[in-house]
Structures are given as C-alpha cells and as structure tokens.
Amino acid sequence: MKIDIYRSATDCTKYLSVPAGTDVTEFAFPKDLDKDLRTLSPFKTQHEIIPGRPYVALDAKDVARQIKERGFAVHGAKVTITVSSGGKQR
Predict the structure, then answer these.
(1) How many domains does the chain have?
(2) What does the DSSP 8-state code read for residue 25?
(3) Contact at 8 Å (CB) between 60 and 52?
(4) Which pLDDT does position 44 carry in this prediction?
(5) Strand runs labelled E in 2-85
(6) What is the mean pLDDT of residues 59-82?
(7) Residue 89: what pLDDT?
(8) 90 in a domain, yes or no?
(9) Does 75 have pLDDT greater than 80?
(10) Is 46 a member of any domain?
(11) Nearest alpha-carbon partner for 15 in 30, 3, 31, 2
C-alpha cells in the first residue's frame, strides 16, 4: 500500500496518512478530527508500507487498518534516544 503522510503544522508529533494521491484539501474529514490535524504540511509522498513490516515511528498494520476503515489514519511519532556509557572507568 502506498500512502501520503502529512505532519501537523502545529504539533510535529502528530501525523495524518491517506492513500497516495488523495487530495486532502478535498477530503471530508470528520468534524471531531484533532484540531492539530486541520493544518497539515506534506511529510512523505508515495511511501510504501507493508503491514507486518517494522518501521521507525510507524505501525503499518494500524495505519492500513485505519485507512481501510475510514479512508485516513491518524498516528503519532516520537523517537526517544538514550545514550549511556558502558565502558569501564580507569
């Protein structure tokens, strides 16, 4: 499945994905859609996802299910990196 991913212009941890080629300006989103997802910036286009394959900050199975059920998917992305020292002290 190929999707277009958009990022919220007001909260960079919120994303909205639609089938590739969907014109989001013409899409009838529900009125209760998160207000942060009403202003979007393109993030990735024609991004191929395969449900069951691991992706960084994206659950492809969940995104595919949401798109099948309602024509779009709402998801978040937050990557946390922890750096620690494992070396011996002298």
Answers:
(1) 1
(2) T
(3) yes
(4) 96
(5) 2-8, 14-19, 40-48, 73-76
(6) 91
(7) 58
(8) no
(9) yes
(10) yes
(11) 3
